[in-house]
Amino acid sequence: MLTQGSLPLIATLSGVSLHTFIYRFGEWDTTSVLLVQIYTFIFVGGNLALYLDLLTSTGLGLSPVAFSSLCGYHVLGVYTSMLVYRLLFHRLRRFPGPFFGRLTNFYATTLSMNLQKPREVQKVHREYGDYVRLGPCELSIADPQAVKVIYGTQSSVTKGPWYTLLEPRVPLFMARDKQEHARRRKVWDQGFSTKALHDYEPRVSKYTDQLLQVIHKNAGKPINITPWFTYFSFDVMVDLSFGKTSNMLVDGTESYILRTIRTDMAKVAYFSHLPWLFPFTKRVPFLNSNYLRFWEWIANQISERAECEHERPDVFSWILNEYRQGLQLHQDTLNLHGDAHLIVVAGSDTVATSLTNVFCHLACNPAIVKELQSRLDALPDLESHWLAQIDLFDAILNETWRLQSPNPSGLQRVTPAEGLKIGDKFIPGNVVVQVPTYTVYRDSRAFERPDEFIPERWTSRPELVKDRSAFIPFGSGPYACVGKRLASMELRRVIAVILHSYDVTLAPGQSAKAFWEGQLDTFTLVAPSLELVFTRREQV
Hints:
Layout: H1 7-23, H2 32-51, H3 64-89, H4 99-103, H5 106-110, H6 117-128, E1 131-135, E2 138-141, H7 145-151, E3 158-159, H8 178-191, H9 194-217, E4 222-224, H10 225-242, H11 248-251, H12 256-271, H13 278-281, H14 289-307, H15 315-325, H16 330-364, H17 366-377, H18 384-387, H19 391-403, E5 412-414, E6 420-422, E7 425-427, E8 432-434, H20 437-440, H21 484-501, E9 502-506, H22 512-517, E10 520-522, E11 524-526, E12 531-536
Parallel strand pairs: 2-8
Antiparallel strand pairs: 1-2, 3-5, 4-12, 5-8, 6-7, 9-12, 10-11
Helix pairs in contact: 1-3, 2-3, 8-15, 9-10, 9-21, 10-16, 12-14, 15-16, 16-19, 16-21
């Protein structure tokens, strides 16, 4: 017989049972708002019913205060069961790691608070080894062998819960279903084909010339090049996405949308280990104003692009045509908006940061600059097909991406139910795994002299690369970055045009060390201010 004295125990056990038999399985991140609504309904509804004497027939004589206490006991049961399970019984319990990391993802979140997570994770690996339990159900793996197993073409892993952050919008990059990703990827591949890239080249050259004019005006004196590279990359991607320009290179000012992207990407970095939090930020009025305004801007760009037919195809035209030929369901429209977001954000961030990092390396290595200039001087012109034949370009880019990876924290994956093996190490199934590229790309097991900028390791000194399979800055296989070739074309073009006319040095007072240490991880790498001096070459 139920008595009022037994109710706290029953409420506690109900919480333990709910966690043990339900919450312990599957992903609950996207249902966080629904769960809060259900618990709120039970709490408020129960108290209201007691206040109105609607539950007197139970004979328990509960008061609203007593009912509230029972709700507290239930929640206590859920969390007690969860913490005990994570600490003593979880399938990752035998992996080393910080104590609080075993209990909560808030530990991993603290590593991102200064946007220096790659360095913080590297410190953790130095203390605990290659395989570190960074969260209750998450392993950070700094073993070079893991790169091929987790991110390789034949990998059996799937994308993790982080990829739900933009839901209900699902851009290509966030598509977790492999078949859906493969279907949509075929459409994207058309927008980045060899012919398409050839068509884009004059438009890239247009903005390269505008960038060069900025350097002409500031020749011989210090210029903070970081924002100008950002304006260039954003102008290019808006043009190739929507057939228009954002005019940031011409105006010399940052647009509201670019500031919004920066702010939102920082939030993603801060809370990437707490994906259950994002459904709330999308719904709370004072938190979602920038979020709503950004998606309104995306919708307007798509609408304007759909209303006018351009003679020159762009990246988005392929995606838009596929959408028009389909059923145009509500989810299709949401995904279309997500794809537009992906083109603008991914395309502009990576190119801008890569350019800034490349030029810092070049400013610190004048011998490499001279060698590249001599090869450029020997070309009939600076068209992309000629630039692609200079292997030093790829060497410089690869070495820059090794030391300043576009995604320094690595990409999240989930192991298959049966688990997987990396060397002689078994990783249990259904756990989140991530390879921190910042750490692995500086591992002496994969690279000789890993902390040094040596482009020759990719050309004339291959012995400096011990494990080539550990280096995949843009992914591999079906999940490889679809825009890598376009990004490489942009980078070669800008580097070639500038170095053909100018020498480059660090400005007085500009410290390379301070620049490298000021890099921020906002999922994609963000470069700080870089003061350079561009001096006109005498022979040009």
